[in-house]
């Protein structure tokens, strides 16, 4: 029986903001879409949902590559329990993105589907291709232009196996050092935006996946809190946080200092986070410090 290997990814420029999603097999078999406003998790989930819908007639096993542990855990660990509790979490709060999750639950039934986590922005061809296209769709919605949605699922069961090994040509290949640094800055900016989003802040179990076990925060108030204390104190902000990258410094092997500026509800802060390799997202925050600052980001 033929099999299929597909990467699924999503992108939200402001989280929430213009968003795009994409699943990708090869240049002749991929599909993308998006909206004017959505979260990164919504986009990631929708990429998988659309893939399952378009492959209903494909009878072979499918391996879905995701760089989002949230998506994988939703589909393989959490969804059954949420469904049994009437789509409520263990703390009896409503599950976010229920509309997408209920549809995923139906599409996954009686399908031979395997999820595999891959590290994002690490040079994985299929993942990078899906990410590029998802981000391009989000950018198109931001600019008000028509996005490239791709050819859709045009792969037959007879040629699935050969297609999965076809080399992937990235749409905008650039191997320069500057391009690599920009991609890394974008990656950490996305992680920060996800971590401060209401979607993540309202789910401590999800927020915990972004923080190292020995995480420490020096807050803008001067309070010093460990990981458990931070997670207990998390609450939705109610407004999107604008994340502006300032500087990225490589401190050592798999360790980066990311300086950035946050703006929300008329308040600004200069922030610094130390990220270390590891965890389900590929990176986890080890230390964070915030200092109250003007609403306008500094020039550097």
TrEMBL record:
Per its UniProt record, the required cofactor names are: Mg(2+)
**Residue ranges of every copy of the RNase H type-1 domain listed in the record:** 1-139
Residues in coiled coil: none
Which residues take part in binding Mg(2+) 2?
9, 131
What's the name of the protein? Ribonuclease H
UniProt gene name:
rnhA
What positions does the entry give for Mg(2+) 1 binding? Answer: 9, 44, 67
Would the keyword Nuclease be found if you checked this record's keyword annotation? yes
EC supergroup of this enzyme: hydrolase
Known partners and oligomeric status: Monomer.
One GO cellular component, as annotated: cytoplasm
Alphabetical list of SUPFAM superfamilies matching this protein: NTF2-like, Ribonuclease H-like
The cellular location(s) given in this protein's UniProt record come to: Cytoplasm
**Keyword annotations for this protein?**
Cytoplasm, Endonuclease, Hydrolase, Magnesium, Metal-binding, Nuclease
Q: Which family does it belong to?
A: Belongs to the RNase H family.
InterPro entries for this protein? DUF4440 (IPR027843), NTF2-like_dom_sf (IPR032710), RNase_H (IPR050092), RNaseH-like_sf (IPR012337), RNaseH_domain (IPR002156), RNaseH_sf (IPR036397), RNaseHI (IPR022892)
Annotated GO molecular function terms are: magnesium ion binding; nucleic acid binding; RNA-DNA hybrid ribonuclease activity
Gene3D superfamilies tied to this protein: Ribonuclease H-like superfamily/Ribonuclease H
């Amino acid at each position: 029986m033929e099999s299929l290997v597909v990467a699924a990814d999503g992108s939200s420029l402001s989280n929430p903001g213009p968003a795009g999603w994409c699943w990708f097999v090869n240049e002749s078999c991929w599909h993308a879409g998006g909206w004017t406003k959505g979260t990164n998790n919504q986009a990631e989930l929708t990429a998988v949902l659309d893939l399952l819908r378009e492959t209903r007639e494909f009878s072979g096993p499918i391996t879905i590559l995701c760089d989002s542990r949230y998506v994988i855990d939703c589909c393989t660990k959490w969804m059954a329990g949420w469904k049994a509790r009437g789509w409520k979490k263990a703390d009896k709060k409503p599950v976010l993105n229920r509309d997408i999750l209920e549809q995923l639950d139906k599409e996954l039934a009686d399908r031979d589907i395997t999820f595999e986590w891959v590290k994002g922005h690490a040079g994985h061809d299929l993942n990078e291709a899906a990410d590029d296209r998802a981000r391009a769709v989000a950018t198109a919605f931001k600019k008000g232009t028509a996005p490239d949605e791709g050819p859709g699922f045009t792969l037959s069961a007879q040629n699935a196996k050969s297609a999965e090994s076809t080399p992937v040509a990235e749409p905008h290949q650039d191997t320069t050092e500057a391009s690599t640094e920009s991609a890394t800055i974008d990656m950490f900016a996305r992680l920060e935006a996800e971590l401060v989003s209401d979607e993540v802040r309202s789910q401590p179990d999800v927020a915990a996946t972004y923080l190292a076990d020995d995480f420490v925060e020096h807050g803008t108030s001067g309070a010093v809190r460990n990981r458990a204390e931070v997670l207990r104190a998390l609450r939705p902000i109610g407004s999107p946080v604008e994340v502006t990258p300032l500087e990225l410094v490589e401190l050592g092997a798999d360790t980066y200092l990311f300086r950035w500026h946050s703006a929300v509800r008329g308040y600004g802060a200069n922030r610094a986070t130390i990220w270390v390799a590891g965890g389900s997202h590929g990176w986890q925050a080890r230390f964070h410090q915030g200092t109250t600052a003007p609403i306008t980001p500094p020039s550097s």
